[in-house]
Design a protein that fits this description.
The protein contains 15 helices and 2 strands. With about 350 residues, the protein is mostly helical. The longest helix is centred in the C-terminal third of the chain and has 21 residues.
């Protein structure tokens, strides 16, 4: 079985990072606050740090006050949308839902309204309603959020399946990936259905999967507290994609993502732990023991081969030159020990 030659596709390794470096603030599932693409962060952050780089609720609370002042000047669709998004980020979900419902009633058909309603219903725990509105947002605009909402749909479907079977994640992946059970992930490219379908109903490729995982994870980590096995599974697959893309270049970011997956309580804890240890450089005690044994055996063999070099050298000075009297070992003949020659 062949595997994808990720090391020959270096651009794919940038796909996930491209999403993460784009927006601050940006909402993978909340739409309408930004009027244009914000600047990228000025410094490099690791993948895990990028996922956790969010503005605090205090900042959003200040923006709420600003949006309320703007709303006093008269009803405006964009102002109301921005106010709803700010309320959502500040944790004021009920008022945000009322705003988005009102927007859909007054000006129906907007894809941002559908997406925002879906996200708010998910945050309130109504996954069935959330799934309906996220699918409706995709129907209205299939390319929204850079075409990553297919993963949002799978997240909601996974939550509904977990409600029926709490062990569902032990044998399934939210993103629909199967990277094997070894210490390193593996994706056979000739297996049917190895990648899930994207927004357009086509098979996603490695770049789309990495982008979707990064895009959906970043804002999800703002709202979802630990533990959460769904988020853990997404982090696990994001780490797998990073590992496959990165090759042997740098294992530290991969280990960081596996560590985050462990922190969120994975359903496949043993497998996540196995890969974390491998990419984190955990010592292999069996291998270390074998290497030390081989070193000892080699040194012992060299010693036995050249043992004569380590024997003491005795220089005998003749008695006529002032040396000590010569003795004769007679113990081997008489058993009486050594005696001086008369």
């Amino acid at each position: 079985m062949k595997t994808i030659a990720f090391r020959q596709l270096p651009l794919l390794a940038l796909a996930a990072g491209a999403c993460l470096l784009r927006a601050h603030p940006a909402a993978a599932c909340l739409s309408g606050y930004e009027d244009g693409p914000p600047p990228a962060p000025p410094v490099y952050l690791s993948p895990g740090q990028q996922l956790m780089s969010h503005e605090d609720r205090g900042t959003w609370t200040l923006r709420i006050a600003d949006m309320r002042k703007q709303a006093e000047g008269g009803w405006n669709f964009m102002t109301q949308t921005k106010l709803g998004v700010c309320l959502a980020h500040a944790g004021q979900y009920d008022e945000a839902v009322n705003i988005f419902q009102n927007l859909e009633r007054i000006q129906p058909g907007g894809y941002t309204t559908a997406e925002n309603l879906g996200t708010m219903y998910e945050l309130k725990g109504n996954n069935a309603a959330a799934l309906y509105w996220i699918k409706e947002g995709m129907r209205r605009n299939a390319q929204t959020h850079e075409g990553t909402e297919w993963l949002h749909v799978r997240i909601l479907e996974a939550k509904l399946k977990l409600a029926q079977d709490p062990n569902w994640l032990r044998s399934h992946s939210v993103a629909g990936l199967d990277t094997g059970a070894g210490r390193t992930p593996n994706l056979p490219h000739d297996a049917p259905g190895v990648f899930p379908e994207d927004n357009m109903g086509q098979r996603a490729d490695t770049g789309q999967v990495s982008l979707a995982l990064a895009y959906q994870l970043r804002e999800r980590l703002e709202f979802v507290p630990k533990p959460d096995p769904v988020v853990s599974d997404l982090l696990f697959d994001f780490a797998n994609m990073k590992a496959l893309n990165a090759g042997d270049s740098d294992d530290k970011p991969v280990a960081e993502l596996y560590q985050m997956a462990l922190d969120y309580g994975p359903a496949k804890a043993a497998l996540v732990w196995k890969r974390f240890k491998y990419y984190n450089g955990a010592p292999n005690y069996w291998l270390q023991g074998a290497l030390w044994l081989a070193v000892f055996a080699t040194l012992w063999g060299l010693y036995k081969r050249y043992e004569y070099l380590f024997e003491p050298v005795v220089h005998t000075i003749p008695e006529e030159w002032g040396g000590p009297p010569k003795t004769y070992g007679v113990s081997d003949r008489t058993g009486a020990g050594k005696r001086k020659q008369p």
